Fold:
Amino acid sequence: MNLRRFIFSSESVTEGHPDKVCDFISDSVLDACLAQDKTSRVACETLVKSNLVVIAGEITTKAQLDYTRLVRDAIEEIGYTDEKSLFNQKSCQIMTAIIRQSPDIAQGVDARKAEGKATAEQGAGDQGLMFGYACNETSELMPAPIMYAHKLGLALAKARHQDRIKWLRPDAKTQVSVEYEGQRVIRIDAVVVSTQHDESVKHKTIYDTILREIVLKTLPKHLLDKKTRYLVNPTGRFVIGGPEGDSGVTGRKIIVDTYGGMGRHGGGAFSGKDPSKVDRSAAYMGRYVAKNVVASGLAARCEVQFAYAIGFPDPVSICIDTFGTGKVPDAKIEKAVREIFNFKPAHIIRQLNLLRPIYRKTTNYGHFGRQNDLNSLTWEKTDKARALAKAAGL
Structure:
């Protein structure tokens, strides 16, 4: 049997990318609200361009916030602190356009009766469809291309924050192209790193340093070979970056945030949204379910889809797809999933303990595949694997 060979690519971006600056500011506002009032309803969007930051949205909270200080602290933490640059934490202009959550939406989400509402339970914060995904390509049970792209971006950030590579600047993008044979990872075909840098450094120094200190120390050596291509700052120059070079908007890196294009996406963004918004909480639940299915040995890869109606507590559909890798039929896995997990928004929030200020931790380098803090990122736990396997008769 000849298995098809193909190459799949995924990208990641660092915290200094304009879109990620926005995501981090939005999640900083969310965490500040939840730290004071866990019942906060938050939908915070951010726009950055040049030296301007605009935060807008709907926030209902008892928290007392200094939005200007929150924005400046977030920008400083990212690393835009050079006062000679157009965009920095001290001189940026900040505009706010924030109102309370619409009462029409609130009555659908709140756990109370309302005219025209089917139940008194907490309902979904919006209609929509959410996906969760897991596979056994990496120890994190994530697709290899996005996992390796995230690790390169994180290595760049650590080198910059630790001042080990002094000419690095906050904005950067990474991309990894992985060759597969069937569903098996064979090798890495191409690596792309584009990083903002000080204007005094030469391109050869950038290329040699990034290859030696970042790429070759981060990626699995057994997947790199003589044919692997390395493209480092392929434009030749990347001095102007961040919001000075490009505009940024919250929620524009949803593929980076999830599975790098491996598996489908419902289109809903995460950052700046409290967990009553199923765009975020149900996507986290989807990852939790899919990861436990793979960890249980029921399948080598698994995708879960949920769909919701605004104001209604139960999902209108649940679908499991194991892409032909299931040890038992997908219908049997779906039945076991329904038996073990509860998908009502209130239950998701309680089960994953989501009413906490944990969301700044998720903003950068993927919301999934993070193994370093399972107490916070509860959707990465595999504590239901044994029960799932038993329920499915494995």
